[in-house]
């Protein structure tokens, strides 16, 4: 019985030592390099862009429109963030739709908006990855309940990719 008890203590001691020192001894002598979640900003095929767009009223409708400048030939636009702030929105949030043209087809994406009655402000941000081809472009439509004479401001950021 004495032998069994001593054997059990020896095994438990070795297991404890392996647990304590095993993590340290298993690593290489040099510090381990861990991958960071970063974008390849040094890649010449990626050109960061940011557009500050003014949305203009379209006719008598309570609707506003804007579009990004033409996409250069041989490039594709990748939109990562769309933000809007409307200081005179009326009585509800409205609806903002981003419409990129991909392979000749317009595809609509709704941007979630939030209305703040105390500040009389509508704001919203969409973090996504929207693609648009050269020659097609991207336009934005903003529908509100009460059209005001003030213009609406939109921020779009992303990058061009060389094709």
Structural features, described:
The protein is mainly β and 163 residues long. The chain has a single domain (47-162), classed as Jelly Rolls, CATH 2.60.120. The chain has one helix spanning 2-25; strands at residues 46-57, 63-67, 75-86, 95-102, 105-106, 109-111, 113-116, 121-133, 138-143, 152-162. Strands 1, 2, 3, 4, 5, 6, 7, 8, 9 and 10 form a ten-stranded antiparallel β-sheet that branches. A hairpin with a 4-residue loop joins strand 7 (113-116) and strand 8 (121-133). The mean pLDDT is 76.
Q: Briefly, what is this?
A:
The chain is mostly beta strands.
Flag low-confidence runs.
none
CATH fold node name: Jelly Rolls
Strand fraction: over 45%
Spatial separation of the terminal alpha carbons:
77 Å
CATH architectural category: Sandwich
- The run of helices and strands is HEEEEEEEEEE
Give the total of domains.
1
Shape: elongated
> How is the main sheet built?
10 strands, antiparallel
The amount of helix comes to 10-25%
SS-derived structural category: mainly beta
The number of helical elements comes to 1
